[in-house]
Design brief:
single chain, 300 residues, alpha/beta, Rossmann fold, three-stranded antiparallel β-sheet, binds zinc ion
């Protein structure tokens, strides 16, 4: 089979093991890549060290391997890519698109309350741009030592109006020197040549920020597919915070059962044949993927 240009990835944070929700996301991105005869990569997003659980990265790789999903190229670890992130941050800075911000969450809340007559907007805290004009320009050589958060300066033009209204000037590097999720992901996707991102619908509101960063950094814009989240019986998103159980199938039959559940969540009908092994199951799933009927898949 000839290879296509498709390059996809699954990028878990090693803050715990895979649960039913992350398995469905991994499977969706794997199937989308394989149905397109593309490359599928695993990237470990271990940049936010306070959230990282020791050993979780290797455990996740083992879990994925049990379900027949292995990276087509060496696994990339974000913790080893600091220099690339710093380079991209500097590029933003040299375009005059960044400024340091010293505001605490409390100060931002007070500022918004003063502007809106004590009403806080329902969609969360949108940074009102307090520090835009008051903090001094930092020399690029000082950028990496700056102890303040670094925000981007969103343009005023109509095209980006929505981003300004719904997100505001967002942080690209935190005060603790950790590069933001948005900037790290955009840097990695470009460097790994990613063309398609398939991920959970909880990340849908990151798209506008990531596409804006891709544009100003002159990086290729990626295609995004967001799949519906797997919810707990209490209709909460499955996550480590909601104590979603890790999936460790005790035997091959249980492994297939987990895959069938993930497939049914993704709206894939696997023909009812006598499937015995994971590779056999995955081949059927690849064929079924283009005809899936997810309850509410969100494409961007
Ligand atoms: Zn500020």
């Amino acid at each position: 089979m000839s290879k296509s240009n498709y390059r996809g990835r699954f990028a878990p944070t090693p803050s715990g093991l895979l649960h039913a929700g992350s398995l469905a996301t991994a499977l969706a991105s794997w199937l989308d890549a394989k149905a397109a005869r593309g490359i599928w990569l695993i990237r470990i997003e271990d940049i936010d060290l306070p959230r990282v659980v020791t050993g979780a990265d290797q455990a996740i790789l083992q879990q994925l391997a049990l379900f027949g999903m292995t990276s087509d190229e060496p696994v990339v670890f974000q913790s080893q890519r600091q220099n690339s992130y710093k380079e991209q941050l500097e590029k933003l800075h040299l375009q005059g698109l960044t400024y340091p911000c010293n505001c605490s969450r409390k100060e931002i809340t007070h500022h918004i309350q003063r502007q809106n007559g004590s009403n806080l907007p329902t969609q969360g805290l949108i940074y009102p741009g307090t520090c835009r004009t008051i903090t001094p320009w930092i020399d690029p050589s000082e950028l990496n030592h700056c102890r303040l958060a670094i925000r981007v300066r969103l343009p005023r033009d109509d095209q980006h109006q929505l981003l300004r209204q719904t997100v505001g000037d967002f942080v690209v590097r935190r005060a603790d020197q950790i590069i933001s999720y948005q900037l790290a992901v955009v840097t990695d996707d470009a460097q790994q040549g990613i063309t398609h991102v398939v991920r959970g619908a909880d990340l849908l509101d990151n798209v506008a920020r990531q596409v804006w960063l891709q544009q100003v950094l002159h990086l290729p814009v990626v295609n995004y597919l967001h799949i519906p989240l797997v919810l707990s019986p209490q209709s909460e998103k499955l996550s480590k915070q909601t104590m979603a159980p890790a999936i460790w199938p005790p035997n091959p039959l249980a492994t297939l059962q987990f895959l069938y559940s993930a497939a049914s969540h993704l709206g894939i009908q696997i023909p009812n044949r006598n499937i015995q092994t994971v590779p056999e199951w995955l081949q059927s799933a690849i064929l079924a993927w283009p005809d899936r009927q997810p309850p509410c898949a969100i494409t961007f």
